[in-house]
Structure prediction request, 66 residues.
Amino acid sequence: MHNQFIYDKDGKLNPQALVQIGAFFPIEVHVPPKIAETLSAAGQAVPKCVTGLGLIDTGATLTCIS
Prediction:
């Protein structure tokens, strides 16, 4: 999970942060540890981490990766 807050010089949340840093950010998607353990115990390969760019959806309240 990733949370990032950008504050202004007075320590308040900066409403212009998205304009300043952009809507894309680097991401890594990993298999959760418990699933990796289960796969390993069954003799199956654990998929490697996938990297890419994430896009902030300012209208979303939830994100799903498939």
Notes: The first strand starts at residue 24 and ends at 29. Residues 33-41 form the longest helix (9 residues).
